[in-house]
Amino acid sequence: MTIREALREGWSALTGSDTETPQLDTSLLLSHACGISREKLYMDLPEELDEKRLELFRANMKRRISGEPVAWIIGNKEFWGLDFKVGPGVLCPRPDSEILIESALEIIGKKKSGSLHDCCTGPGTLALTLASERPSWDISASDISVLAADFFKANNQKLTGSRVRYTHSDLMNGINETFDVIVSNPPYLTPVEMGDKVALGWKEPELALDGGGIDGLNLIRRLIPRISDHLNSRAAVLIEADPLQMPIIKQILSDAGFVRITFRQDLAGRNRIVIAFKE
Length: 279
Known about the structure:
- It is a single chain.
- By secondary structure, this protein is an alpha/beta fold.
- It has eleven helices and nine strands.
- A seven-stranded mixed β-sheet has the order 5-4-3-6-7-9-8, sandwiched between helices. Strands 1-2 form a two-stranded antiparallel sheet.
- A hairpin with a 5-residue loop joins strand 8 and strand 9.
- 37% of the residues are buried.
């Protein structure tokens, strides 16, 4: 079987599955099986695949069809030009989170020093990206997931030389510091959304997705007062969530005493990031 034929086989197999990008997924899995770049893959379309690579490709395609993210299968996910190690049990970095990075960098501006904490860091998506952009800042991170801690440690060593401090914590419990900026991409899916994704075969951890409560905001309701306790005066918080949840989150922030509450939009023009300041 040639590379071209294997690509067609993969595209056909993924058609009708939960993926919106069957061609991209197939090319990533096949290039991974062949040990070459996607660019090289498309240059070698007429080339024959040996049996070992074809078996690996087909085995990985079965994993993808069952609902595993491509990033888990190949072991990494690019975000902000950085290569994050990911795998089963950890939430993969999402493109929408780059809007939070952009917004945080705008708030940080040209300040040469400061402190920033990433709550619900997962594999370190926000904390390590911001640490790579602002190496002179004191940056730390926390998460409740034991599995996520292992991936964070590997990514921290690779991307920052283990410069970012990590605490195993449930919503910043046990953290006694205060910060100039806190960022978070917490779980915020509703029970209905979780059920739909499970029905589609999603494998990503419920711990990183289920926000609790009928509106998916129970965790955020717990998180915002704790963030307030850990912010310096005039410090900022940035939270990523579903656009439909933003009006409620704005009210929760206002009730907690936050001011200057604004939103940042995703590429579809929907409010994806909420930004607020502590007086």
